[in-house]
Amino acid sequence: MTKQILSVSNMTKASLLVLSVVLSLFSFIENPNDKGIYVKNSTELNEAIDQANPGDEIIMANGDWNDVQIRFLGYGKEGQPITLKAETPGKVFIGGKSDLKLGGEYLVVNGLYFINGASPSNAVIEFAINEDTVANHSRITNSVILDFNKAQRNETDLWVLFKGRHNQLDHCYIAGKSNRGPTVRIDLAGNQNIKNYHKINNNYFGPRPPKGGPSAETIQLGNSYTSMTPSHTLVAHNFFDRCNGEVEVISSKSNFNEFRNNVFYKSEGSLVTRHGNYCIIDGNYFIGDTNSEQIGGVRLIGTGHWVTNNYFYNLKGKTFRSPLAVMNGIPKSPLNRYIQVTDVVVVHNTWVNCTSPLQFGVGSNVDQKDILPASEIRSERPIRTIVANNLIYSDKGDKQPVVAHDSLDGIRFRNNLINNQGLSFRKLPGVETKDFSLSELEENVLIPANDLSGSALYKGFEFDQITTDLFGNSRAEQNAVGAIVKAPTQKPNLIDISQYGPDWFPLNSDKKDVVKTYSVRSTSQLISAVQKAKQGDTIRLTASKYKLKTPLKIDKHLTLQSADIHKKAIIHYNGAAKTPAFEMNPKGQLTLKGLILKGEKAQYAFASLKNNMSSLYNLTVVDSEISGFDYVLKAYKYSFSEYIQLKSTVITDCANGLELSEETDDKGEYNAENIYIDNCRFKGVGKNVIDYYRGGYDESTVGGNLVVTNSSFTQCGAKEESEILLNTYGIINVNLSGNKFRDNQVKYVARLWGAKNNMHSDNEITNSGELIVEENLPLKLMY
Amino acid sequence: MTKQILSVSNMTKASLLVLSVVLSLFSFIENPNDKGIYVKNSTELNEAIDQANPGDEIIMANGDWNDVQIRFLGYGKEGQPITLKAETPGKVFIGGKSDLKLGGEYLVVNGLYFINGASPSNAVIEFAINEDTVANHSRITNSVILDFNKAQRNETDLWVLFKGRHNQLDHCYIAGKSNRGPTVRIDLAGNQNIKNYHKINNNYFGPRPPKGGPSAETIQLGNSYTSMTPSHTLVAHNFFDRCNGEVEVISSKSNFNEFRNNVFYKSEGSLVTRHGNYCIIDGNYFIGDTNSEQIGGVRLIGTGHWVTNNYFYNLKGKTFRSPLAVMNGIPKSPLNRYIQVTDVVVVHNTWVNCTSPLQFGVGSNVDQKDILPASEIRSERPIRTIVANNLIYSDKGDKQPVVAHDSLDGIRFRNNLINNQGLSFRKLPGVETKDFSLSELEENVLIPANDLSGSALYKGFEFDQITTDLFGNSRAEQNAVGAIVKAPTQKPNLIDISQYGPDWFPLNSDKKDVVKTYSVRSTSQLISAVQKAKQGDTIRLTASKYKLKTPLKIDKHLTLQSADIHKKAIIHYNGAAKTPAFEMNPKGQLTLKGLILKGEKAQYAFASLKNNMSSLYNLTVVDSEISGFDYVLKAYKYSFSEYIQLKSTVITDCANGLELSEETDDKGEYNAENIYIDNCRFKGVGKNVIDYYRGGYDESTVGGNLVVTNSSFTQCGAKEESEILLNTYGIINVNLSGNKFRDNQVKYVARLWGAKNNMHSDNEITNSGELIVEENLPLKLMY
Question: Sorted alphabetically, which keywords does the UniProt record give (chains A, B) (predicted)?
Answer without folding.
Answer: Lyase
